[in-house]
Amino acid sequence: METDIRFTHQAIVEQCKAGNASSQYELYSRYVDAMFNVGLRFLGNTEDAEDIVQDSFVDAFNNLNDFKYESSFGAWLKRIVINKSINHLKVKRIPVVPMESHEFHLAEEEPLEAEATDIEKVKRGIAQLPDGYRQIINLYLIEGYDHVEIGEILEISTSTSKSQYHRAKKKLLEIIDGM
Amino acid sequence: MDNFEKHIRENAAKFDTHRADSAKMWANISAEIQKKEPKVIPLWKRPMLRIAASVVLMIGIAAVIGLYQYGSASAETQYASKELLEIDMYYQDLVSYQVQLVKNNPNITEENKAEFLSFMDELDAEYDVLRKEMRKNLDNERVLEAIIANYKKRIELIENLLHQLNESKKPNDDYGYTL
């Protein structure tokens, strides 16, 4: 099953590697909306999201030979978009993690159990999160990365990712509760 | 993972609500790709060409190494065969001059000429063998001596022949004078 996912669109990807323009457009059409939404979630405005997604597609097509089907093409492309988005935020000095001194919070994390919540409420809740909280919530809940992957993306340790996520989730639940 | 998280992850697609300005972005992307396209890198990334390139490279390296070794070896041969070269230059002219003399001499019967030339051919064959030996045993004194002996034998042969001719003439002359 996993192999099937990884080799989705293999034929098109191979044609793109060979430089076939119509295949490139086909691949682009399949992924542009999803990637635009990813960019928008991280960057918060249309212009930046468009720029980042354009850049990501250009990079992806130029470096397509580096894509070896270790993941699906979509996952590979999404990682490019997210990495570029995070870099963009860092350049603009927008915090990508809640606090600088991540290592000081000890094991005071009480388990945080919550029930399924209306998606629309969650959306509005995420929109109200302060900078830094939003990224880790997006990465974990919506993009579906685990803490090891988030650690790589944000250049933090796995345990920091866990505790920061815990903090962000707590904040999100508070916002939703207050609605 | 609690129900809150599960519910969001399962409905992650519901967060993709925005649509990208696909045509505008593609125009920018394709312009960028075309700009970079003449890099021709993909050609080299094709497996067959990679193999071909490595083969060419290996042949190239082998040729360089071979040339280097052959070059140094031939320098040695050149040095070692300097003596041979001198010997050749000295004797070859002498021998060929005398062979020509014999060939052009009207006083020698065709039978004698053929016999003489067959001797010469035998010595030529021997000489070729010695030269080959010389290439294998660089700087071998005995081979050099054998080559010289080969030349000397030829000269001796010619001298003998010419001597015989002169001898056969002499009695006539003496006879003439004694008369």
What is this structure, in a nutshell?
The complex is a heterodimer of chains A (179) and B (179). Chain A is an all-alpha fold and 179 residues long.
Structural summary, described in words:
The complex is a heterodimer of chains A (179) and B (179). Chain A has 179 residues and is mostly helical. Chain A has two domains: 2-91, Rna Polymerase Sigma Factor, Chain: A (Orthogonal Bundle); 102-177, Arc Repressor Mutant, subunit A. Chain A is 67% helix and 0% strand. Chain A has helices spanning 2-6, 10-17, 21-43, 46-62, 73-91, 119-128, 133-142, 147-154, 158-177. In chain A, helix 2 packs across helix 3 (21-43), helix 3 runs antiparallel to helix 4 (46-62) and helix 4 (46-62) crosses helix 5 (73-91). Chain B is an all-alpha fold and 179 residues long. Chain B is rod-shaped and about 130 Å long. In chain B, 8% of the residues are buried. Chain B has seven helices and no strands. The termini of chain B are far apart. The mean pLDDT of chain B is 78. Chain B folds into two domains: 37-80; 81-178.
Secondary structural class of chain B:
mainly alpha
CATH superfamily of the largest domain in chain A: RNA polymerase sigma factor, region 2, helix turn helix motif
- What is the average per-residue confidence, as pLDDT of chain A, rounded to a whole number? 86
Radius of gyration of chain A: 18 Å
Compute the number of strand runs of chain B.
0
Radius of gyration of chain B: 42 Å
Helix content of chain A: 55-70%
Report the CATH architecture of the largest domain in chain A: Orthogonal Bundle
Largest sheet of chain B, in brief, is: none
H/E topology pattern of chain B? HHHHHHH
Low-confidence stretches of chain B: none
Tell me the number of helical segments of chain A per DSSP (H or I, 4 or more residues long).
9
